[in-house]
Amino acid sequence: MNKEQASKKTILLVEDDIFIGDIFETKISISGFNVVKADNGKQAIEKLEEGLKPNLMLLDLRMPEMDGFTVLEKLNEKEEWKEIPVVVLTNFSGEDDIDRCMKMGAKDYLVKSFFTPAEVMEKVEKYIS
Ligand SMILES: [Mg+2]
Fold it and tell me: What residues does the ion ligand 1 have nearby, CB within 5 Å?
């Protein structure tokens, strides 16, 4: 990591859909952040266990191996992980899902089809630590 990258804030993007993942990866990096991508919840938790300290996590819910709800549960198990701001980005839009995520500490819940990547970044910049 060079000096410029080290001074940037890091977003952990957890998304199993390659197409959506690519769109957001590009959008996040042109918005001036480092982006680390995980293809599912299990990979995301592994990256945290390896010592990654993201300034924010953008989290999909429906993923293989480990879903986003389980990731939120796991984040609540560790003091240092609890501090990570999480913005849920998903296709689910049921009120139960929204409630469940917000109760587990998510900062916001965005339905993919309702927001452009630019609008998602506006939200992200509001919550990034
Ligand atoms: Mg998904």
Answer: 16, 60, 62-63
